[in-house]
Amino acid sequence: MAENIMNLDTVALDEEKHALVILDQTLLPNEIKLLSLTDQKDIWEAIYLLRVRGAPAIGVAAAIGVYLAARDIEEDSYDGFYSRFLEAKEYLASARPTAVNLFWALDRMERVVVEHRHLPVADIKQRLHDEAVAIKNEDIEVCRAIGEHGLSLIQDGDGILTHCNAGQLATVKYGTALAPIHLGRERGYQFKVFTDETRPLLQGARLSAFELSENGVDTTVICDNMASQVMKNGWVQAVFVGCDRVAANGDACNKIGTSGVAILAKHYGIPFYVCAPTSTIDMEIKTGEDIPIEERPAHEVTEMWYKKPMAPKGVKVYNPAFDVADHNLITAIITEHGIVHPPYRENLRALFDAGKQAQHV
Ligand code: MRU
Q1: Where are the alpha helices (DSSP H) in 152-208?
Q2: 56 close to ligand 1 (CB < 6 Angstrom)
Q3: Domain 5-143's class?
């Protein structure tokens, strides 16, 4: 394991091989392996199987993926090209339902096609390339800005609890919820981070703990059911989590278990911050009730991390991948444009009305 993952881009476009390059997150923390994907089925599967995961990283992967699909379309007429583009777009959009960044990025790519319909198909392909690269580069800027705003809310030496992985591995660089910690580390701050292991896919134990340790951050893994004890001990001054979709009223959908952490934080009087690039805020969705929650296969709960199945064969399993933290539990939503406080319906609307959103179609 020669590479330090903090020096790698989690998602990238290989310009020479015309491939989507991702760090295979299913192998972490034991193996650092870059995958070079050209086939649309492999890109779809990489998103579905969480080889690439985390809302912003999924968005960037989809943008690059649909560009690669477009590049291979052998159609000279605009109509023929556009209809094949739409097929490729719909296919990638079907990989996962909850993170709005997937649809946001694909819609943004479609807009490039529509807006340049007067150009030859070859030129449209070039614009799609440029847009995919822009989406990737913007992600780095956005995460850095979220990190700066988040850092302004905490003190050197604070204990921070996080759930799932909303770090560098979930974005191109820095992450969202872990960006304040990585930036603080650059400036010599010493945070003490508690990462919930995050059942069932263990993004906290496998990924957050890994990237934080690689970056020299004081990191302690706890099982999900230990968060209350750690908070009661007075070891947590703030909770930072990411999100997959924020509704217009501020309800925030994130990895399963997040709402429980928010309830605990409220109980113990600990600020609960949701880090949300504006590309993750879906103003079309009024409340969290309307956010589609992905359900995943039973074996992720009963077998995946065990030598032998740890539940009786055939037992019923409920495996929702996400839940929604009610807006009343959220102290603030940290976007790239600044920190949004309640009332969220009004204040998120004001942010978007001021043109401060990521480009939505
Ligand atoms: O199922 P995952 O691992 O893709 O879920 C990821 C999360 O819930 C993250 O917290 C969220 O996508 C934000 S990533 C910056």
Answers
A1: 179-186
A2: yes
A3: mainly alpha
